[in-house]
């Protein structure tokens, strides 16, 4: 910013705060007496911090730098500074006063189509604003936002069009470079929004996005950026897609849809209807990644069913539908964020040229192709090493292997590098041997696009391309400070060592030239771990004394063969001429070549054999015709070969290998199938189900199709093309429906059947069985469902000590218990994808008694009729009985569902844990008589809440006699018993009749509780009969009643 001492290293007083220039006298030699390059150091003096993020941007002659201080203790950015240079980095000016001294910036964006336009985002934790500049960052205007920007996407052609993705997953658009914004869509999936970019420049304002619905599904939407209302949104793909699967790239749109446990991939070419991508029949892909869509062809990596750490490469036809194998078992790995990284590298500047690391017998080897996967070969190792000694490496046992990963840091060079403006030069790290290794890594360079290689360093270096590849700059990868670099002016054939600073520098990154015709490099780092940022500008212009002229170039061929991918050759600089290129001078010389067999790949369904011929795969029938072929029309009859899409060769064998048009012969329908769109055999009642009709052969334009849905409805179609989007139908009832389709034409017919299970969601399951039963007595258990009709069901039962379940198609089972004790019964009901279960406990004894209890009416006012309340009241009742001298180990209390409130009291034989002491039937009678006595004296009561006392009575209205039928009873007792039996039977008949009333039955099924209990059959309007409370029920009579409630209060207090 200000003048500096000519020979000193100290700054004179700077006119601007924040930077300082340190210059080394040109005549001062370095310690090793090496030639020194013209350089200058800028110090970002206000950035005396250890944790910094730097964002660089080149705009013509302007360099912008954004520095940020991240406080790891606070977990946030606490400071930021914006720096600007207008002289390629010689001096820098701090612009914090122009953007706001207290403003904390988070991101810097440069418009890709107009580098004069700059956008800065503020830290969203402080404020939501953006700053806009239209003069290369000299001045800024600030605009407030009502949302927080997470990322921006600029239009590739329209400089003012921007998409902004907010932190709450909303997508906004701006047609005024961020000055005004309009909401497009909510619930957008991160990184799944795209501009419509097509070769035809059709609909440039169309936005493609993947959005989530309220129920969590993903769908593909398109709309205009300034008119994206609900009525104007389109859904190009019918139905839902797999989450995070939308890709829009050039003329192609890709989505994924999983059905039947398998992913299926669909493609739309030039925004036409989607078609399923066709891989070889038994590829059975688990995962797919689109590598490129250059030159109207899709290059994809597919992980097949039997692969774990490798992928196969496939190449498509123009529409991206039919794929053929290009290379098997390409190595893959996981990135830092879990993303899949395929060891495949596309060489810049030469179309169809790729490098790939293939796994062979647990060894990874590097292969190269010049015709987009048609042919692959190993890399020939250099003839000599760095010291000139011969290298003994014989193909195929030994070859050169390269690391193909590219650096994720934009300011450091990757392990492998190439440039569009220098198509012949490839620089990479690797090793010589039988396989790729992480040890003994050296640097290699090729000056003829991978045909031959030379070793240039024995350690890893970062290599930058300057002057369109006319100058290569190499800096050593090291954690130590350095002050030297290497230069090559002959495409890496020879290297010279230079010093770029007098003080060793910890290098954090390197920036290449900001302009097309400059020879400037900026190195940034620290002199020490606690020093300020140092920016070293190195200018190579003084090395050259002239620009290159036409006579400084010569043609060169890409390959030993005369023509590959229709290119005959390129133009390259003569290595012995030291001149500055300026504008790109290596433009290729291209003209059509004569077609050879090497210009053709195998067509879909064909495989290349060892003799080079493409023959049909075992699963492919070459005689099968396209379903779109109709009588009177023609189709292309494949020869087994197809020309590589981007290849424009002519003559030669082109006529021999090109598919021939042939008249469509009439064929009878064959291979008819009917399936659901999602591949499932189930549908939901009241919802659309889409049926797809598929036909392998037959004249689809002159075919009558009849579809019978099996529910009394049938439809007819006159041709198959009218059913491409499927047939939608709604079933109003549940059940299994036989769907049939019949196809007829003048030459024959075919039919197909689909058995479709229509269901409705199962909401509740209640297991109905008695509280207590006797040993060796058959017990009935029933699963009661809501709703009662849900379609095809499977019941899985566990009971007793059985370790294996019982599986039935019926909702009831009968079983016996042969030993006494508490037993758990569980039923699981499977309905479609849903499985519900209920569990109940049943007590098994040889002898027991039971009694129905009732309560004073005030208890009904506090009965919410939920399981939790009933369990608590059961414990309170048992405690009240124990307080009046009823042995707690003998009684079991269960409050029943419904109103009026009632409970079941069981008198059980007690057996101590040792099994030695057990109550006799006479003792059970004594306990029963004591119970009756206490209840008749109103001795059993409890306090529900302060001031609310509840009395417990013996109640009746049961379907079984309440006395024990034993010979010890007197004759009068028997007479009384017969009377009671008569009355009891009458009540039982009425009770059973009432249980069959539809209203009561439905109400019982609609209980929505955690325990899912059945309600009591006693209604609110029924009065309580006064039957003498001296009668107890026998166990055999109790079982028939089937009390449908959970066992409660079985603790022994």
UniProtKB/TrEMBL annotation:
Topological relation to the membrane, as annotated: Single-pass type I membrane protein
Gene designation: SORCS1
Protein name: Sortilin related VPS10 domain containing receptor 1
Transmembrane segments: 973-991
Organism the protein comes from: Oryctolagus cuniculus
One GO cellular component term: Golgi apparatus
Similarity annotation: Belongs to the VPS10-related sortilin family. SORCS subfamily.
Source domain of life: Eukaryota
Keyword Magnesium tagged: no
Database matches in PROSITE patterns: PKD
PANTHER family named among the record's database cross-references: SORTILIN RELATED, VPS10 DOMAIN-CONTAINING RECEPTOR SORCS1
Record keywords, A-Z: Glycoprotein, Membrane, Repeat, Transmembrane, Transmembrane helix
Spans annotated as Disordered: 1013-1053
All residue ranges annotated as the PKD domain in the record: 708-752
Biased composition (Basic and acidic residues): 1031-1044
A UniProt-annotated Pfam family: Sortilin_C
SUPFAM superfamilies registered for this protein in UniProt: Oligoxyloglucan reducing end-specific cellobiohydrolase, PKD domain
Compartments, record wording: Membrane
UniProt record, GO biological process: post-Golgi vesicle-mediated transport
